[in-house]
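Bit of a strange request maybe. I'm writing a small parser for structure token strings and I need a real example to test against, not something I typed by hand. Could someone generate the tokens for this chain?
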Amino acid sequence: MAVSPRVLLPAPVAARYPALPTEVVAFLAAIELCGSADQTVWLFTAEDYARTDESGFGWNECELMALNAAVGDPSWQAEIAAFWNDHFPFMLAVHSDYDYLAVRVSDGAVVHGCAPESESPTQVTSSFGQFIEQFQSQAMAATAQWPFSLFMGAGG
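Reply from user aminoacidic:
Good idea to test on real output. This should exercise your parser:
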């Protein structure tokens, strides 16, 4: 019996990120659960992207916090929305400053950012494939380098 691949993104999220690299979607769709033992770091899964209730942390938590800070300033809110329309978050660490990893959709690079300057990320790798290779290498190292260390478990 053939197993059908899981759909990672619900229609509204998929519509927001139509140019998301297929390797990102395939990788994340294959994961049912992936996080640190203390539940402060995790990769987003199909369940996270589909969640519509407000319990727990949402896949777009950093965007929501920024939009909340910009209430009453439509221009700033538009800038925030434009930023997140080009940045697809796939990993979150809540043990520090809401550190996230995202794919910059316009060029496929992986970036790292954190609150309160979530919309000023730094590039980690030039592609998702390169990110996976480096993450794997860092996970095997005695001491992971920053920013990888932030996502290897509690505290970084």
